Amino acid sequence: MHDLPDPISRRDRQRQTREAIILAARASFARDGYHGARLDEIARAAGFSKGAVYSNFANKAELFLAIMDMNIEQSLATGGRVLFEVPSAELTDDSDAARSVRNFALATLEFVAVAARDEVLSTEVARRIDLQVLGYAAVAEAARAARAERGEAVDDDLDAEQVGALLSALYQGVAVLRIAGSSAFDGDLLKAGRARLLQPGGLSAGEMSEVLAQAQRLPLVEQRLAEAARDWRASRQEGQE
Fold first, then answer.
1. How far is Cα 116 from Cα 194, in angstroms, rounded to an integer?
2. Is residue 216 a contact partner of residue 202, using CB atoms and an 8 Å limit?
3. CB environment 181-201: b (16+ within 10 A), e (fewer)
4. Between the CA of residue 52 and those of 20, 24, 27, 67, 129, what are the distances in Å?
5. CA-CA distance, 194 to 163, in Å (whole number)?
6. Where do the CATH 1.10.10.60 domains begin and end in the chain?
7. Dihedral of CA 137/143/148/152: which sign?
8. Could you tell me if 191 and 209 are in contact, meaning their C-beta atoms sit under 8 angstroms apart?
9. Which parts of the chain fold into alpha helices (H)?
């Protein structure tokens, strides 16, 4: 006689439903934009009724925030490696995957514009952006530790948090320019700007890539992002109670 699998709990079933809706919504927002996406179509794509969407999310804005949360979780799960990548090719080539990334970035711009006019939404978006800045600050701190291990002087005027904020602004600004069709930035220029921030007047872009590769192997980045992930999950649980 074979043992039957344990029946799925109500909580697990609700979690699976929620995740399926979020994944369907992410595809819908990428395809149709924030304003063009419809909750009934998202529900149908996920295999549920529209009521299932509203039993998990109050409105379209809350659903989009949940997608941002999933993206944050996936980013933290990589140990911050995504923060070292250069967002250029995926914003310019014509593959299906690249178009999906580009189109979701456009939907995010739509959502941010909507949120900026709403006090509650703008606060929620800011919390998520601040977490991203924290990730870049961890990158900056790890890069400094890597430089110190190489015997280099570390006497920057800006602290790691300030450098992290500037790195975030650089990467997000470049992404917006590329989405808008500008050719002012390419991957090499972005790497050069990153090198200037992480080692002012010092290493070349190529040499900084070596430092960043070394920084990624340090436990500091993983530790900082693990702490951020723990605090982030705790704050979300408090908000859901």
1. 28
2. no
3. eeeebeeeebbebbbbbbbee
4. 11, 13, 18, 16, 29
5. 10
6. 8-57
7. negative
8. yes
9. 10-36, 39-46, 50-56, 60-77, 96-115, 119-149, 160-179, 187-198, 205-217, 219-240
Q: What is the C-alpha to C-alpha distance for residues 217 and 205, in angstroms, rounded to an integer?
A: 19
Q: What is the dihedral of CA 131, 227, 101, 193, to 10 degrees?
A: 70
| pLDDT recorded at residue 1 | 47
Looking at residue 120, what is its pLDDT?
92
Domain over 8-57 is classified CATH 3.40.50.450: no
pLDDT value, residue 135: 78
Q: What is the largest CA-CA distance in the chain?
A: 72
List average pLDDT for each run of 10 residues in the chain, which is 241 residues long: 61 90 96 96 95 94 93 68 53 66 89 94 91 81 75 75 88 84 80 76 56 56 62 61 56
Q: Which two tokens stand for residue 41?
A: 């179509």
Residue 185 token pair = 């930035």
Distance CA 174, CA 27 (A): 23
Angle of CA points 156, 158, 164, to nearest 5°? 115
pLDDT at 109: 92
DSSP assignment letter at 203: S
Quick one: tokens of 145?
A: 């530790």
Spacing of C-alpha 10 from chain mean position: 30
Q: What is the Cα–Cα distance from 59 to 42, expressed in whole angstroms?
A: 12
Q: What angle do CA 152, 153, 159 make, to 5 degrees?
A: 120
